[in-house]
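Incident review: delayed structure delivery

Summary: a single-chain prediction request sat in the queue longer than the usual turnaround. Root cause was a stuck worker, restarted by the on-call engineer. No data loss occurred. The affected request and its eventual output are reproduced below so the record is complete for anyone auditing the incident later.

Affected input:
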Amino acid sequence: MASLEIDWDRQGRQASYIHVPSSTNTSAWQNLRIPVFVIRNGAGPTTLLLGGSHGDEYEGPVALSKFAHSVDPNEVRGTLIIIPAINLPAVMAGARLSPLDGLNLNREFPGRAHGSVTQRIAHFVTTELVPRADIVFDIHSGGRSLRFQLCTFLHEQPEPERTHSFLAAAHAFGAPLTVVLREPHADVMLDDVVEKSGRLMLSSELGGSGMITPETVRVSYEGLLRVLRHLGHLPSIEDGVMSHQLSRCVSVPGSDYYVHADDTALFEPVLDLGAPVERGTVIGHLHLVDRVERAPTPVLSPQSGLLLCIHGQGLVHRNDTLVVIATDYTP
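Output delivered after worker restart:
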């Protein structure tokens, strides 16, 4: 089982490790150590901040590492639990899945106490960390295979007032888009664990293609600070400092807003992320460069809306997601 030595009642800043026993072909008695920072200063909410659930998504680990090493604990109110790279083996490998067991951490919740390494990490988050938190912010980006218009993600809740509180946190982050998912989500994700426990859950998709850029770093870090101010963890600042435009609220109503590849080909996008599209708009072309008889094939928008996401790499394979379209969200 995984374990963490932290004094949860102690005030100030603590730095420690989640210890996850492992055994591999090259390290029989391995002890995986995942860095954790806990900052506690008086009464207030407890927020769990996670990055690196997928190892090829770098904005979360960078923003949380920067914050954990620079924040003045005396300015914090309440408790912050900060884990820059929760799926550390995947982050160190630059891979979506853990190289230790081939599993996707955000498809293994609520986890297993005596399962594989990834399952034990998920179980520890579910049983030891989520119950201590009032709010969970899991910072994602598109990874190697997808590229998103910068956005926060949340699930529409059965109670309108809960959806409103989720939206308020997302608007505080200040990404260009806030995506509200209406369709039922899989019960193997962290979101499901958090929401079933009655806590506030916020996620994001901040870029992608396995890259990190000055823009994605800035939006991630400044958005993190704004959310923490919104939640009461950090003191408010003067108007106009780190100001941002109101996030546009959109949704992806269903599977008919996706386009998947039918062939292995090179994908040539012709529109920028966030561009408005009509049903049938040409978003890009597929080049089947291994066949003399196949001319480039247009990729058409399946619905009207805006271009939320495209494939993150030039080479695509059959069944890969090529395009996701979003439309304005109406509660």
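Verification: The mean pLDDT is 94.
Action items: add queue-age alerting; document worker restart procedure.
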